[in-house]
Design goal:
By secondary structure, the chain is mostly helical. It has 3 domains: 53 residues, no CATH class; 153 residues, no CATH class; 101 residues. Helix content is 76%, strand content 0%. It is built from 14 helices and no strands. It is globular.
Length: 333
């Protein structure tokens, strides 16, 4: 949990590069560097406050105990670990994104690099990267249209713009878990609002940003499919096997040991959640209509989703069984 939170806070300063206007001022590059530092600090503080408030309000569920998370990885098998594959994919994607970004958009290369990083980071499989890349591009396209409609609606140094920027970022942070498209669209709108605050016109910069995002998404997708790919079917099978093993462990637990029962229950719930996150991209493949060439993939996706749904339906009864068993043990004691 600490590693995830630290990683999130390290990524937040990249928002400064994403939304900082490229216009020049009396101080030239020093002024832009100063504003980048300020925006990075604001991003970190704002993200930390939102995370803290959401946890206090129980809007974000804490992960299971450390023992459950460590055990969820399951036994190691032969071959290259998934973490190593993801590292090589990220290295290839960032190298290509840096090269293409600096060559095509030397003043705005960060958009290509940031998109390649966001699309490939934490990817569970090839399908997961594909869905994130498509959604980010679609969200940026919609955000570009909305930003074009908002351009010039507010005057320079308007207080309403500052309030609206923070409100949009809060909504983007909240909706990001539902789809990456919301985040990309909201950040594009924030970019237009920030230009309004500075009294500048984005001109064709929003279209350049959309092109950079599309190129970065293609680079991230290509890296995940060509560099030591993680097949979606293999990931789903591994997660399904882990969830079934956790259910077996719960049923075979010593019901006189309340802590062991609750730990096995939490482990099963956690692994089912991991399986659900892995099968999420398959819902698109299972949705009709699809070309006939994808019919086999669609059948496999439907089978995987049925298995995930069956295991998900077992979570609540397993919890009730564990509660009843521990209650009966406490009463007899």
């Amino acid at each position: 949990m600490r590693a995830t939170r630290a990683g999130t806070l390290l990524v937040l300063p990249l928002v400064a590069v994403l939304v900082l206007p490229g216009g020049t001022g009396p101080a030239g590059g020093h002024e832009r560097t100063g504003w980048a530092a300020v925006m990075a600090l604001v991003a970190v503080v704002w993200g930390s406050l939102l995370t803290w408030a959401a946890r206090r309000a129980r809007l974000i569920r804490r992960p299971p105990a450390v023992e459950v998370t460590a055990a969820a990885a399951g036994p190691r098998r032969g071959g290259i670990p998934a973490s190593t594959r993801m590292a090589w994919q990220m290295a290839a994607a960032l190298a290509a994104a840096f090269a293409v970004g600096r060559m095509v958009w030397p003043d705005h290369w960060a958009w290509v690099v940031l998109t390649a990083f966001l699309v490939g980071s934490g990817a569970r499989s090839r399908a997961d990267v594909l869905v994130k890349g498509v959604w980010r591009t679609v969200g940026a396209a919609v955000g570009t249209v909305v930003a074009g409609a908002l351009a010039g609606s507010f005057g320079p140094r308007s207080d309403a713009v500052v309030v609206l920027i923070f409100a949009v970022l809060a909504v983007a942070t909240w909706l990001r878990e539902l789809s990456h498209a919301y985040w990309a669209g909201c950040v594009t709108a924030v970019l237009s609002l920030l230009y309004d605050w500075f009294g500048q016109s984005p001109g064709g910069l929003l279209h350049t940003r959309l092109a950079g995002i599309a190129v970065g998404a293609v680079i991230g997708i290509a890296a995940s499919w060509l560099v030591l790919p993680i097949r979606t079917s293999a990931a789903v099978r591994a997660r399904t096997a882990a969830a079934l093993a956790a259910l077996t462990e719960l049923l075979e637990a010593d019901w006189r040991d309340g802590r062991a029962v609750h730990l096995a229950r939490a482990r099963f719930s956690h692994r089912v959640g991991q399986l659900g996150a892995t099968t999420a991209p398959l819902r698109i493949l299972a949705a009709p209509p699809l070309p006939r060439a994808l019919s086999v993939r669609r059948r496999r996706s439907v089978d995987a989703l049925r298995a995930e749904a069956a295991l998900r339906r077992c979570v609540e009864p397993a919890g009730d069984l564990a509660t009843a068993a521990t209650s009966a043990t406490s009463a007899s004691a």
